[in-house]
Amino acid sequence: MDTIALILSIIGCVNWGLVGLFRFDLVAWLFGGTGTLLSRIVYTIVGLAGLWCISFLFRRKPLVEGE
Q1: Is residue 18 in some structural domain?
Q2: Please, is 52 exposed, middle or buried when counting C-beta atoms within 10 Å of its C-beta (0-12, 13-18, 19+)?
Q3: For residues 13 and 3, what is the distance between their CA atoms, to the nearest angstrom?
Q4: Which residues contact 28 (CB under 8 A, 6 or more apart)?
Q5: What is the pTM assigned to this prediction?
Q6: 66 part of a folded domain
Q7: Are 39 and 32 in contact (CB under 8 A)?
Q8: Which is nearest to 50 in space by CA: 18, 14, 15, 6?
Q9: CA–CA distances in Å: residue 9 to residues 18, 41, 45
Q10: What's the domain count of the chain?
């Protein structure tokens, strides 16, 4: 679950980077616009993944065993 959340958060970061630098929304481009149901689902899943990643800050054990 942690790995999937991190991957989705990275996808969101890349998308926001493209929006900020080039005014290009990759998710909207791939799924037919910002208001389409599929785009909104992707935005929601990426947002939930970002919220999940906040829990990384409060964990006491390392994510990778052996460190």
Answers
A1: yes
A2: middle
A3: 15
A4: 34, 36, 39
A5: 0.81
A6: no
A7: yes
A8: 6
A9: 14, 14, 9
A10: 1
For residue 17 the two structure tokens come to: 């980077």
Residue numbers of the domain that contains 24: 2-58
Task: State which amino acid sits at residue 5.
Answer: A
Q: What is residue 36's DSSP assignment?
A: S
Tokens of 20: 């900020």
Residue 64 lies in a domain: no
Would residue 45 count as lying in a domain?
yes
Q: Hey, what are 25's tokens?
A: 């929304």
The 3-class secondary structure across 1-67, one letter per residue, is: CHHHHHHHHHHHHHHHHHHHHHCCCHHHHHHCCCCCHHHHHHHHHHHHHHHHHHHHHHCCCCCCCCC
pLDDT tens digits, 20-61: 999 999 999 999 999 999 999 999 999 999 999 999 998 877
